[in-house]
């Protein structure tokens, strides 16, 4: 797939994998909403997304001058597991 064929979320995923420290909070929210649906909680400093599978019931992200690298990795792991189950 060439960069021209990718959707906005796919481009963000490529960037997240190559540089977890350089991801904006807004981009991380877009990816989470695409894969996990609307957040269960928002309005505070945290956004909580429910996982559509047993085991890891939620992904919790917060804005701290951009997305935190460990949260980016947590989201990527959750997406990889979700894709492995045949979304």
Overall description:
The longest helix has 16 residues. With 87 residues, the protein is α+β, with helices and mostly antiparallel strands. The relative contact order is 0.17. The two termini are 20 Å apart. It has a two-stranded antiparallel ribbon. It has one domain. 45% of the residues lie in helices and 11% in strands. The protein is built from three helices and two strands; from the N terminus they run ααββα.
**Structurally, how many domains make up the residues?**
1
Which class of secondary structure composition applies to the elements?
alpha+beta
**Radius of gyration over C-alpha positions, nearest whole angstrom:** 13 Å
| Terminus-to-terminus distance | 20 Å
* Average of the residue pLDDT scores: 84
Low-confidence stretches are none
Provide a count of the helices.
Answer: 3
Principal-axes shape call: globular
Report the sheet-strand fraction: 5-15%
Helix content: 40-55%
Quick one: how many beta strands?
A: 2
**In this structure, how is the largest beta sheet organized?**
2 strands, antiparallel
Sheet with most strands: strand arrangement: 1-2
- The secondary-structure element order is HHEEH
Oligomer: single chain
Organism: Leifsonia naganoensis
Protein name: Toxin HicA
Region (Disordered): 41-71
